[in-house]
Amino acid sequence: MNSLIRACVTLFFPLLFSVIFFSQDGLAGSNYPSSPILESRGKFPQTVNVNKQEIQGEKWEKLNASNGQGAVVCWNGDENYLCFGLRRGKGRGIEFVHFFSGGDFQTGRQFPIYIDGELKSVLAIEAIQSTSELVTPFDLLEHAELLEDLKAGSTVSIGYDKVISFTLKGSANQLKRVARQ
Fold first, then answer.
1. Phi, psi at residue 85, to the nearest 5°?
2. In angstroms, rounded to a whole number, what is the distance separating the alpha carbons of residues 125 and 29?
3. What global pTM score does this model have?
4. Which string of b and e fits 71-101 if b means at least 16 CB within 10 Å?
5. What is the largest CA-CA distance in the chain?
6. Tell me: the pLDDT tens digits for 128-140?
7. Pairing between strand 155-159 and 110-115?
8. Is 165 exposed, middle or buried, given 0-12, 13-18 or 19+ CB atoms closer than 10 A?
9. Residue 1: pLDDT above 60?
10. Helix (H, G, I), strand (E, B) or coil at 155
11. Tens digit of each residue's pLDDT (9 = 90 or more) over 48-81
12. Which burial class, exposed, middle or buried, applies to 57 when counting CB atoms under 10 A from its CB (0-12, 13-18, 19+)?
């Protein structure tokens, strides 16, 4: 029974909460400003074209335990790699994570997140290692809808220095597993 209640709260409360209390301009019916992340959406294109031949990763998989408990999708090139996912267990709570080689990203950068070509969120990053590991703390108010979109969509495209698209195949089961841990 406890797991059923946890599943309902994890899956349905965030979506219901955001639908009832929030609009794109901030709190519905109030004078509260929208968040800085929502305000930054205007800096990025509202849509991107997704070239199906350039979608990276075969499917979402369980994250290597040394990196926490989570799920990722990865692209492995000849010399570099890039992974995007959701994890917990590194002492910072639930967070979006980017693992990579061949780049250097400093704290404060913002990456637009597109689901099936449509801008859904902007992730402000913190550099754990600026040349290999970036995170964005998961915020229920900011990211509940994005999490649902990641489970339901076909592709996620992230605006790094250039837009990289990953498959969302297998994301629903893997992200639900992360939420239950």
1. -170, -165
2. 30
3. 0.75
4. bbbbbeeeeeebbbbbbbbeeeebbbbbbbe
5. 52
6. 999 999 999 999 8
7. antiparallel
8. buried
9. no
10. strand
11. 888 777 888 889 999 999 999 999 999 888 888 9
12. buried
